[in-house]
Amino acid sequence: MLSQLLLSMNYYKETYMKKMTIRLLLLSVVFSIQLPAFAAFPFLSNNPPTLATVVEKVSPAVVNISVSGKQKEQRSMDDIFEFFNKQRPKQAEKKFVGLGSGVIIDSQKGYIITNFHVIENADEIKVELKSGQILVAQVVGQDKQSDIALLKVDLSNNKNAQLAEIAFADSDKLRVGDFVLAIGNPFGLGQTVTSGIISALGRSGLNLENLENFIQTDAAINSGNSGGALVNLEGELIGVNTAILGPNGGNIGIGFAIPSNMIKNLIEQLIEHGEVRRGILGVRGGEITPELAKSFSLKSQHGAFVYEVNSGSAAEEAGVKAGDVIVAVNSYKIKSFAELRAKVGTLGSGKTIKLTVMRDNRQLMLEAVLKAPQQKPEKVALLHPALNGATLVNIDNNQGVEITQVIPGSIAEKYGIKASDIIIGVNRTETKNIEALREMITSAPDLIALNIKRGDQSLYLILK
Question: What is the pTM assigned to this prediction?
Answer without folding.
Answer: 0.68
